Amino acid sequence: MRIRISEITIGRIADGLKRRISNIPHWLTWQMAKNQHERLAEIKNRHKGERCFLIANGPSLKKIDLTLIKDEITVGMNRIYLLFNENFSTTYCTVINELVIDEFHEDLDALKSETFVNWTKRSLFKNQSQRYFYVQNALEDGFSCDLSKGVYSGGTVTYASLQLAYHMGFDEVIIVGLDHSFADKGTPNKTEIRTGTDTNHFHPEYFPKGIKWQLPDLYRSELAYAKARSMFEADGRRILDATIDGKCDVFEKIEYASLFEVKE
Question: Where do runs of H (alpha helix) occur along the chain?
Fold first, then answer.
């Protein structure tokens, strides 16, 4: 017996297959988001009661001895890897700014540190290893106590890193390299093309000539830092600023050298 399949039936089958195939990317995105949510939940309070060093990117980093913290838990940001060598690298790295990721994602993809990256730029990272944590970045103001629900930018990656530190349970966060002062002046958050040597950061090629970068919003950053300090202190934790000659007055100051035991 021959079974005749009409063109209409074939068309319906084809349309059904197309719909199922078109839904696959959406399902994969949902599954990836679910996986990231679970992974971020798993590391909540991973370092409860411990201390970490949060390394910002100011020129003052050149004045401190980073080998003193090579055995500490450290959180670096953006292009901190320009300081990496056989004696120093950071435990974690935070890269939230989309423009920074666009310009340097190939460099970032070669790192070994566990790295927190903006969810919207996940497709740029070819090395899809377990060392990546993709986080949703909210542009409005706030403070996230749980990274699985997203992170607030506060106009600076340092603020995002403070939320990371809170999420992982650090009792004490010590900041270095937070100069909070920029040689370049202009409209906050405006995107510009780098035209000369970068004097705003610890490395002259941090934002090299021809690279797009955004001017800082120091006032918004200060408001965000004040919120971070309030959140930490409300939970019996603290943020200390060990930056040499830093211009940020939000956090309690401490001498960098005093943080380490003097061995006789």
Answer: 7-42, 98-108, 157-167, 218-234
Give the Cα separation of 188 and 198 in Å (integer). Answer: 17
The residues facing 94 across adjacent strands are 77, 116
Q: How far apart are the first and last CA of the chain?
A: 97
The pTM of this model reads 0.85
Q: Say which CATH architecture domain 44-259 belongs to.
A: Alpha-Beta Complex (3.90)
Q: SS3 of 117, please?
A: strand
Q: What is the sign of the dihedral through the CA atoms of 250, 255, 257 and 262?
A: negative
pLDDT tens-digit series, residues 173-230: 999 999 999 888 888 888 889 888 899 999 999 999 998 988 889 999 999 999 999 9
Instruction: Pick left, alpha or beta for residue 245 (phi over 0 → left; psi -120 to 50 → alpha; otherwise beta).
Output: left
Backbone angles phi, psi at 222, to 5 degrees: -65, -40
Rounded to 5°, the CA angle 193-199-203 comes to: 95
φ, ψ of residue 205 in degrees (nearest 5): -110, 20
d(CA 94, CA 76): 6
3-state secondary structure of 206: coil
Do 164 and 92 contact (CB within 8 A), yes or no?
yes
